[in-house]
Amino acid sequence: MIKGANTALADLSDDVGSVIVSLGWASPTGEGDADVSVLLLDTNGKVRSDSDFYFYNHPVAADGSVQLLGKTPTADGSEDRISFDLTAVPSEIGRIVVAASRYDGARFDELEDVRITLADAAGESLLRFAVDDADSVTAVIFGELYRRGEGWKFRAVGQGYESGLAGLATDFGVDIEDDAATEAETEAALDTPEADEHADAATLAPAEEPAPPAVLEAIPAPRRPEGEAVEPKKPTARPRTAKKKVTLPRTVKKTLAENDSWKPARLFPVSVLKSDRDREMRATSVLLSVMAQVPEFSRRLTAGFGAPAGHMETFTEVSLPHGDSPRRPDGVIRVERAGKLWTALVETKTNGNALKADQVQAYMDIAARRGYEAVITLTNDVALEGSPLVDVKIDKRRKHKVALWHLSWAEVAHQAQMLIRHEGVGNVAHAWLLQELLYYLQHENSGCHGFQNMGPAWVPVRNGIDDETLCQGDARALEVAENWERLIRQVCLRLGGELGQKVLPVQRAKRGTDPTERRNRLADQLCLDGRLQAELRIDGIPGVLAVSADLRTGKLRTSVEIPAPEQGYPLSWAKRLVRRLAEAPADLHVETLVDSETGGPRGTLERLRPEPADLLPKDNGTKITGFRLSLLKSMGSGRGNAETGFIRSVDDAVHRFYTTVVVHLDTPRTRRAPAKERTTTG
Known about the structure:
The chain is α+β, with helices and mostly antiparallel strands. Helices cover about 25% and strands about 25% of the residues.
């Protein structure tokens, strides 16, 4: 579409009761990002109240009409996806605005391929609008959905705001208290010309930040510069954007058991599971029963598949006619809203069992004949963009379309963990049910362990690298590269679930946008130098976390590059960095990054602790641009998920690096969490 154009959704598809809107962009550095927001407007073009404004801290509408699904990896980075159930939008709402904003002084002209796409409930892409003239603005309205008669239309807007998200939201009636002046005064008070130790400490070491006032609960506050300290302001009355939610404490309660042999009773036992069939049946029943009882959880899993918000019922072992013999999918999900039904057939696999193409094809055919909307596959495998797990044939002559979706067990566990540990659910019973589900999924006997096998090509490729016989173009190297991407995505899910933060694989724009070409390049690089490399973007850390597996040496390297402060003396930087890393491993490698080809000084933390000045270049005229921190560990050789396997070693390396190194670093400028978020998180 072009700017200003509009189109009726009903003209594009027959299945637009629910739609998925995706906002995307590419970043040359892999670090550029923006926050998505949605505003529901009445006939006067204003929000009815602040609760009609949806953003990172208020992502879901109580009626299910809006749900911010978060980021999903794409070929060139990630996309923010939003689910709209248009049948649930209140009748007094005439327009829905979809926008995004940048922070910390960043602007949209620093991003590439800024775009919005819209897909119907079957997942079929209907339209695309490229925002080519975002320029130096900090917020952009990408597009809007608006009513016309009984239907909905989409308009490509592309309007920029130099005043950022606050200016955009204010235009539509969101009540924002302007504390920019206070922040400017505070920043000016902290900005002294002397670059002494105290000023340097304020540059790198964040001050204890007071809980923000309740007035900020309905609108994201500006991200605070490092070291900035402000006096807490008196809270003012504001409407809350969401009901108070329940999270479970992370610390284990004191037990009444006499000793460790007394095991607590579990809602979902795992001790009797003896066969793969038992595991599949139990896992399906456990998951679907919890989904039917915990709407917050089920919406997280199904909204992206086009399911509406409504009354959900789930079933197992349903018999459906198909030719001479009936078929029995592992489960059925059915949602009712306004007298209409949305139905999905579910096929699950546990352990290393793979999907069978003929089985999935049969379910697609059954769903098409019976008017069902989707088939959902659920396995330990991770689907990659442009590389489906199973190939099925879709008869395009059929008017009714059936969508094929895939979930990994790791994604299910991630969503449960995010809700009960970080974001909260409606009541204690829901939190307890999710905790029991999570315990079951993470038990070694459940078979729901996520991606756990590097594939049959792993050993031949590793041997070929050792004896230098692996050639570019070898199909086995491509298989290993694809499985490496699956492993990295799973590492992101696990770490994100533990931290309660977005963790995503980074794809730099300069590497191209075609996923097949990107994997081919990674496979060729593996053949040339024997390395697998990836980068992770984690909210709240300075830079990206890099992971490199060197199959020649059997070593895993995890590292992060942190930029040099803008103020202060290099010696002060070095001393503060070493102090910040007081509890980091002694074998941590620290390298000074400089703007010359010769490279900067480097050494282990153990050697640098008594002499931080060893990090400074001997030439005083050499400019320091930052520091690189790295940890090395031995790499597992097995292809599976055993203690000595490659998969476990990568997961452990990333977890160790984050918990022993990254947590000690200064956080970049980030959004302040509302007080309610701090008090409800366990």
